[in-house]
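Chain A, query sequence.
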Amino acid sequence: MKREDFKQVQELREAGYSYSRIAVVLGVPKNSVKSYCSRLGIRPGSRDQFADEDGALRCRQCGCEIDREHSSDAKRFCSSECRMRWWNAHRDHAKSKVMLIVVCANCKKAFRSYAGEHRKYCCHACYIAHRFGKGVVHDKRTV
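Chain A, predicted structure.
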């Protein structure tokens, strides 16, 4: 690899690119990228993505400044309440391998369910409607 490639490798890896992707972009062998990153301890996403221009970390939900503790993990939220609020509002950002697309037994709409839940209905109203013979009802959680 050339000297100018090293800086690009670091920037791309910190931005979250894989070894293979970096190798394709720069036209260098994948193992060269891998060994360079492991030698210098460059990890994917290690750049502070949530820092503002002053370098202060900001909460994804409320935007307040987060105190940097003596932790190696970069915090993204100021509290567990903000974390739960953000993830409940942004369920589509979850990269869960256990999410399944299931079809509601009542309204026949597809919805997301976690594996192992064995859900048949997209919402409680569909369960009631199917079980007790009322009209077809569905909520906003359907896909």
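The first strand starts at residue 57 and ends at 58. The mean pLDDT is 76.
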